[in-house]
């Protein structure tokens, strides 16, 4: 895995997996290492995700790092300035524009680290993460623990009846499940 930003060399790293699998923890770890290395870091999160904080990325185990909330992916491009490393949490909330934004940032010589769900609650690919996986130089797939059987979990089970694709929530709305224990909605 690449750890050092070289002049003019940019790339994309994607951290993906289910809810509760440690994606944000890993993102924060990589961003803190970049800061320790005295690299200029810009960190972004979607404004829609205000579960724990308006101005920090916060993991489920309460690790946190200051961030900028943005309404859309294009604002990341506008606000990244002279950052050498750009961190983006909850990439699935930005839509397909994130693919173009990440490619432009990497083409400009920046290290881009994106964390996000690769599947929605139905177990279907959650754009734009699958498309980012296709162009990324580095991919990390994280696994949670199934709350039903204790097996490695790569699915997110919604435990409410809301059928909207995007529902921001945590343990009150979602559980980590393995392939066997995941129960996608029958009507879809």
Question: Which helices and strands appear, and what pairs or packs with what?
Answer:
Blueprint: E1 11-17, H1 23-36, E2 41-46, E3 56-58, E4 64-66, E5 68-70, H2 73-79, E6 85-88, H3 97-107, E7 111-117, H4 129-135, E8 138-142, E9 144-145, E10 152-153, E11 155-158, E12 174-177
Parallel strand pairs: 1-7, 1-8, 2-5, 2-6, 6-7
Antiparallel strand pairs: 3-4, 9-10, 11-12
CATH topology: Rossmann fold
Name of the CATH superfamily:
P-loop containing nucleotide triphosphate hydrolases
Q: Order of strands in the sheet with the most strands?
A: 5-2-6-7-1-8
Q: Compute the average pLDDT.
A: 91
User: Helix proportion of residues, in percent?
Assistant: 10-25%
């Amino acid at each position: 895995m690449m750890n050092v930003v070289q002049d003019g060399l940019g790339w994309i790293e994607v951290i993906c997996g289910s809810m509760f699998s440690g994606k944000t923890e890993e993102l924060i770890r990589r961003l803190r290492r970049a800061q320790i290395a005295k690299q200029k870091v810009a960190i972004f999160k979607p404004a829609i995700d205000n579960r724990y904080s308006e101005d920090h990325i916060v993991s489920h185990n309460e690790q946190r790092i200051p961030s900028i909330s943005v309404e859309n992916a294009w604002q990341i491009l506008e606000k990244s300035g002279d950052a050498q490393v750009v961190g983006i949490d909850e990439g699935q909330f930005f839509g397909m524009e994130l693919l173009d934004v990440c490619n432009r940032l990497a083409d400009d010589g920046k290290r881009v680290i994106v964390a996000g769900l690769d599947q929605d609650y139905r177990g279907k690919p959650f754009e734009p993460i699958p498309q980012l996986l296709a162009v990324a130089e580095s991919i990390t797939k994280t696994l949670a623990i199934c709350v039903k059987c204790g097996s490695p979990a790569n699915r997110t089970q919604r435990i409410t009846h809301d059928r909207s694709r995007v529902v921001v929530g945590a343990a009150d709305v979602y559980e980590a499940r393995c392939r066997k224990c995941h129960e996608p909605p029958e009507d879809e």
